[in-house]
Please model this.
Amino acid sequence: MATLTELIIARIVAMTTVQALVGKNPTFDAEADQYAVRDGILHTDDPYPGVVVDLQTQTHEKDLSDRGGLIHATVAIRAISFSKPEAWALRTALAFDGSGPNDDARTSGLDAWRDISAGLWGMGLDTETIEHLDPADGEDRDVWIVESLYLVDYREQ
Model:
């Protein structure tokens, strides 16, 4: 069974609007692995823009028989780029994959995603922050990070 982070990364890599925006690292053999979408941190040779998926919290809910089953999680999805507009465009692609927040026909994107067959009962956008990082020593480019926190309910595997 795939972990929650693996499910989310697979979903992100399959989004056509994200594929058009994120950098590709040709040092990986599999095309899906070339996209700069990583668990926890980007690789040093990943090109920008990129996406980082970070599982931050998990709360296990027990039933009356004291068995597990449902997990409430908080997942941070960070869109990272050298420009603020590009980071925001990537954030929008991650959330809605080419549609909008009020599009009832939306079938992809992370906001309002469900995949009952994979045990994911629901994922919804909670809060967002935008962070600007000044260039590091020896660098000449600013970095922009849009962090979107998602609340996720999923079945324990």
In short: The mean pLDDT is 88.
